[in-house]
Amino acid sequence: MSSKQNKSKPIAYQEFGNASNSEALQRSVPDLPPQQQNIRVQATRSGRKGKTVTMITGFQHSPDTLNKLLKQLKSQCGSGGTMKEYTLEIQGDHRQKLVKVLGDLGYKVKISGG
């Protein structure tokens, strides 16, 4: 067999379509305005070796928008943080400050948990 025949070999079975089409595999998230989003702020220690982390959930933004917002919130709190699966995590207990800052940005914010 020549190398030309190997390249034109038809695919007999492919479960999930073309793997190189990454746009189709990405999660589609509507980029809603802040007034239409219900945000939850919660402080937790679970799985973090006793360190407190403030988690902010409920965002319906693109990852780029969330990264910009995360950078702004980290600078407001003066601490580090990260984004994990559309959830923002800020190091330390900053619930009250984050509720005020997010409220000023137009989000509907509530503190959840104890």
How many structurally independent domains?
1
Beta-strand percent range = 15-25%
What is the terminal-to-terminal distance? 69 Å
Under CATH at level 1, the class stands as Alpha Beta
Q: Please give the share of residues in helix.
A: 25-40%
Q: Can you list the strand order of the major beta sheet?
A: 3-4-2-1-5
Instruction: Specify the structural class.
Output: alpha+beta
The major β-sheet equals: 5 strands, mixed
- How many helices? The count is 4
Radius of gyration: 21 Å
CATH superfamily: SUI1-like domain
Shape, principal axes of CA atoms: elongated
Looking at the structure, the CATH topology is Translation Initiation Factor Eif1
H/E series: HHEEHEEHE
Oligomer: single chain
Give the beta-strand count.
Answer: 5
Named CATH architecture: 2-Layer Sandwich
Q: Spans of 5+ residues with little confidence (pLDDT < 50)?
A: none
Average pLDDT confidence is 84
